[in-house]
Amino acid sequence: MKKILAFAGSSSPTSINHQLILNVTNRISDHEIEVLDLHDVIFPMYSTVEEKEGFPKNVKLLYEKILDASALIISVNEYNANVSGFFKNILDWLSRLDRKFLQEKKILLMSTSPGKRGGASALEYCKNQFPRFGGQVVESFSLPLFYENFDSEKGIILNEVFDLGITEVITAFSQQIKE
């Protein structure tokens, strides 16, 4: 049994990416999972704060949780064809604390959005960036048209094709982290 850390890269209390995280983590029973909700965690904007005050407590806590996990499930939101400023800021802080903060972490990377592309640009950005920090994206999944394909009250994917797709991705991810 591996320890998995799961979170969405969103500061929204109604994050659709967090809803996707909950759907996926509820399907995994053969690993220990910790789900973080970052919407109420304060991360100051990266700047000269580091020089004056050092690393913020919340950055260190997230870093320790990442180090403690065997694998990660991350769902990134997209703003203007990129990751959100919130998530980019977290990446900036973590990479300053330890350039290889994702070292040897296998990652299931996901994204969803209300649009037809399902956050594809943010997903691609992270696929390119995570290896720079030592991470290995072993599986990925994008859910387009969130409000048409997901029932927020029940927490389920409505579209059978996407539901089957995420099931296959989760199965492959679970197998890959057992190795």
Number of strands: 9
The name of the CATH superfamily reads Flavodoxin domain
Number of domains: 1
The average pLDDT is: 95
Structural class: alpha/beta
Shape: globular
Instruction: Please give the alpha-carbon distance between the first and last residues.
Output: 11 Å
**How would a crystallographer describe the biggest sheet?**
5 strands, parallel
Percent strand: 15-25%
Descriptive terms for the model:
single chain, 179 residues, alpha/beta, Rossmann fold, 5-stranded parallel beta sheet, two-stranded antiparallel ribbon, 7 helices, NAD(P)H-dep_reductase
Walk me through the topology.
Layout: E1 3-8, H1 16-25, E2 32-36, H2 49-53, H3 57-68, E3 71-76, E4 78-79, E5 82-83, H4 85-97, E6 106-112, H5 120-129, E7 136-143, H6 146-149, E8 150-151, E9 156-157, H7 160-178
Parallel strand pairs: 1-2, 1-3, 3-6, 6-7
Antiparallel strand pairs: 4-5, 8-9
Domain NADPH-dependent FMN reductase-like: 3-140
Pfam families: FMN_red
InterPro entries: Flavoprotein-like_sf, FMN_Rdtase-like_dom, NAD(P)H-dep_reductase
Explain briefly what this protein structure is:
Pfam families: FMN_red. The protein is of the alpha/beta class. The chain has helices spanning 16-25, 49-53, 57-68, 85-97, 120-129, 146-149, 160-178; strands at residues 3-8, 32-36, 71-76, 78-79, 82-83, 106-112, 136-143, 150-151, 156-157.
Structure description:
The structure is a single chain. With 179 residues, the chain is of the alpha/beta class. It has a single domain (3-178), classed as Rossmann fold. Helix content is 41%, strand content 22%. The chain contains seven helices and nine strands; from the N terminus they run βαβααβββαβαβαββα. The strands form three sheets. It has a five-stranded parallel β-sheet, with helices on both faces. A two-stranded antiparallel ribbon has the order 4-5. Strands 8-9 form a two-stranded antiparallel sheet. Strand 8 (150-151) and strand 9 form a beta hairpin. The longest helix is centred in the C-terminal third of the chain and has 19 residues, at 160-178. The radius of gyration is 16 Å and the shape is globular. The model has no long low-confidence stretch (mean pLDDT 95).
